[in-house]
């Protein structure tokens, strides 16, 4: 059985006061009932240390939104995997479409980052997903397969079985447009099949696949009930404790 994982990507939002209020709200709500899903919060770098302290005695796990692949050195403005583990991160989001689009991240760079994440004991959440033009041209799966082939190159089956892949159609991120549960489920099934082809069936069965793209309390249950969807990567709706909790408890 794969444990579902709900991760909040706070993007470039929250100062320390806002981050504290948000985490306290999540913590309070989590004490109110049994939660079977794993909960991860991914604040901006500046909030990691504060949030790490706040979640210390809880089951909530900490993730970063990006990192560089070198452990240290003259790389002005970058943050290393060692720095992330030092501050208490367990996960790191890699290859988010905003990183690919605005910062020119390539599959090859993302692959280097994934390998570095494993080297320094971080679990990568690899984001893949097609643009609207690619979906309309029926290129969704071909494109995602190429992202998977390049992004997972040179990894071991053991590593891949531990990681998380987030299927995030670019046209659904922050737009209020959500893929239908069937559309999302179909692509996640195809991602699992591709991983089985690249590695093996056992690895593909263990790997967790999230859907991301305008997930909210009102659509979470339908999305999360799809066979091959093992959780959600949540942007906008992770910025308010009530909205995030509605997804966690959906
Ligand atoms: C994201 O940024 O990963 C995301 C899914 O954002 P949103 O939920 O706001 O669409």
UniProtKB/TrEMBL annotation:
What top-level class of enzyme does the UniProt entry assign?
isomerase
Catalysis: reaction(s)? D-glyceraldehyde 3-phosphate = dihydroxyacetone phosphate
GO MF terms held by the record: triose-phosphate isomerase activity
Tell me the active site: 96, 168
Family, according to the entry, reads as follows:
Belongs to the triosephosphate isomerase family.
Q: Which GO biological process entries does UniProt record here? A: gluconeogenesis; glyceraldehyde-3-phosphate biosynthetic process; glycerol catabolic process; glycolytic process
* Native organism: Veillonella seminalis ACS-216-V-Col6b
Look up keyword Transport and say if it applies. no
Against HAMAP family, the record matches this protein to: TIM_B (MF_00147_B)
Protein purpose: Involved in the gluconeogenesis. Catalyzes stereospecifically the conversion of dihydroxyacetone phosphate (DHAP) to D-glyceraldehyde-3-phosphate (G3P).
Q: Which UniProt keywords apply?
A: Cytoplasm, Gluconeogenesis, Glycolysis, Isomerase
Instruction: Give the EC number(s) under which this enzyme is classified.
Output: 5.3.1.1
Superkingdom, taxonomy of origin: Bacteria
Any Gene Ontology CC annotation: cytosol
Q: Where in the cell is it found?
A: Cytoplasm
Q: Does Isomerase count among this protein's keywords?
A: yes
Annotated protein name in UniProt:
Triosephosphate isomerase
Q: Which residues bind substrate?
A: 9-11, 174, 214, 235-236
Q: In which pathway does it act?
A: Carbohydrate biosynthesis; gluconeogenesis; Carbohydrate degradation; glycolysis; D-glyceraldehyde 3-phosphate from glycerone phosphate: step 1/1
Q: Subunit structure, per the record?
A: Homodimer.
